[in-house]
Structures are given as C-alpha cells and as structure tokens.
Amino acid sequence: MLDHTVPLSSLLQNCIVLGGQAGSEKMRDWARRELNGYSGADTVPDYRHVPAAVMAVITNRAGYNGGTTRIDDSVFPAQVRDMIREKVDLGDAVLGGGIGELEALASEGTEEHRLIPSWSTFIKDTLNEFNMGPTSRVAEVYWSVSNASIRGVLVRIRTALAELVAELITLTPQDQEVPDKLAADQAIQFVITGDRSLTGVVIAVSGHRGWLLAAAAPAARYALARLLPEARVSGWPSPRTRSRSVRVNSAPVLRTHTNSGQGHGRGSGLI
After folding, report:
1. What's the rounded Cα separation, in Å, for the pair 258 and 65?
2. C-alpha–C-alpha distance, residues 83 and 126, integer Å
3. Are 11 and 191 in contact (CB under 8 A)?
4. What angle, 0 to 180 degrees and rounded to 10, lies between the N-to-C axes of helices 181-193 and 8-22?
5. What SS3 class is residue 71?
C-alpha cells in the first residue's frame, strides 16, 4: 500500500475484490467511482476538491485576437451573483474524473491544466449578456488547475487507501482473514467522511465482574475491545438483562443492568 510503484488503479481493483469478499457494496462502489469517475459534483469526496482560478477567453466578435483574464463572481450584477453563489463556488475545482484521467493529466509535463466545469456554458453566456462590449465576446470559461494540485489529489487518494487498510486492521480480529461487512462499511465511512462512529447496537453492562460489552457484529465487538481493553467483550446479554436505549453519535447504545442478585450493576455514563 505504501509502495508508490504500485499503480493506484491496481490497488483500487483489489479493493473491489475485497469488498466483494466482505459483502460490502459500499467499498466496491467507492473503488469503482475512484476508478471510473464520479457522476456528479455532489458525490465527489472532499479530498478531490482543489482551489482554482476561473479564467475567461475573450475574443473579438469574429472569434480572433483572443486573450485570457481571471474572473470571479463579483463581476456579475448582484441578483445574478447571489444566484450563482447559491449554486456553486466558482473557485472550487471538483476533480471527479477517474484515476486514469488524473494520472494522465499529472504526467503531461505541463504546470497548468485547463479543465471545463459543468457550469462553464452558463457562466460564459451570462458574461456575454451582462459584461461584454459590442466588439468582444467570451469564447470559453475554464478552471486553471496547477499540476501540483492534480498530484496532490493522487496523493490524497493513496492516503485514503492507506487509511482504509488501517481501519480494516483495527476492526478485524487477528484470526479472521477477511473483514466482515460492518467493518468494511465502517472503514469506508471513515475514509470518505472522517466519521469513525461505531455502527450497530452496543451494550454496556456494569456489575461485580467489571465491564461487559456486547455489540451487534464481531467487528464492533473487536473495535470496542481495542478501545476499552479493560472490558470483557461478548455477544448479546441474557434474557435476564434489562435495558434501555440511548444514542452515541449515530449508534444506538443500550445501558443495562442485571437481575443477578449480586447487583451493583447499573448503566454507566462512560458509553
């Protein structure tokens, strides 16, 4: 994973295979999108966003004598500017292409790349309507993205893969070769959103024998054992265990106490 001679495309193809073995469609979908590209700007992860200058190519009415100038939304009338700001951030370049496309751009040997945003035609037409004189026109609007930014995105994708492996190692018991679905889904959630919330139902029981933790899936039990090594981790409590439900982050948690007679067991605020 840390060997930079291994192509990102190969690592992502391995993720698709691993996601299939784990039964995690989330892992397979993420790897497919990284390989093939994202279908819409709203689905592109934050690590694929880079700052960029918005440039306009301005020519005469015949399309000759072109020159470029940098623009921002301040050039538009207030009503148009507010509408644009509600929809897009002009200076936020969203690099949704597949890994092969990004790697090809990074290896072109140029310092700057012209990338066409999805809203390019709208901005071009709006500039021509409100900002151009009778002898000039905007022929093209594009992002100017540095090659360093493209390479930076590739590094962040490789880093996301390393974080994915690290999460899977943490969430998978040592005697288990393939992570289960919950572990794989949780690892992908962390890679994409940065959220490491435990999923599934977690149960904490305090009593004369110390902490007893139970979770809905082996991955969650294993993760809890790693986080709280002083705890004993097991499956579901017995029918004699009474419980009430609370919530931690996005995971429903049950605070319980037992009817064992040896008592001393009440839900604790530690979880």
Report:
1. 83
2. 12
3. no
4. 140
5. strand
pLDDT (tens digit per residue) in 123-145 = 999 999 988 888 999 999 999 99
Contact yes or no for 81/73 (Cβ under 8 A):
yes
Per DSSP, 39 falls in state S
Assigned token pair, 181: 């679905």
Q: Nearest to residue 113, comparing CAs of 87, 147, 70?
A: 147
Q: Where in the chain are the domains?
A: 8-42+152-193, 48-95+109-146, 202-257
pLDDT in tens, 29-44: 999 999 999 988 889 9
Which residues fall within 8 angstroms of residue 201, CB to CB, at 6 or more apart?
A: 215, 216, 251, 252, 253, 254
Secondary structure letter of residue 92 according to DSSP: E
